[in-house]
Model the fold of this input.
Amino acid sequence: MDDDGAVGAQAAAVYFLELDSYMQASGDTAEWEAMSHAECDYCAARSKQAKEIRESKYVWNGGSTTAAVLHTYVQDPTTGIWPVDIEVTDPPSKVSAPDGKVVFSSEREQYTRRVEVARRDGTWVIVGVAKEK
Done:
């Protein structure tokens, strides 16, 4: 992520999306929030979910999310944003209440996201994450 061009944008997008499973399991949102732009609704929603799991004393169980770059677009000269298409694979997961009852479960999922990445004060920030059509 030291590169301030396309390679750095790709690394930041992959790192950010792969951070999600750690955040959900640990409730530690600090790195996620540090990389999240204030206008990123996806970023805020995922962080909120991790906090709710932690505050409810629920337990998230699952493997690690993996992300792979599919395509990186040219940097927008006006905004400085690098759009990066990422293939995301989420492992099966479940959320259990303190009594052990499963309150949520999901199967393995694979999908594509468009991640908008920019630089802020010399570091990478995620401006938005959207579903690809």
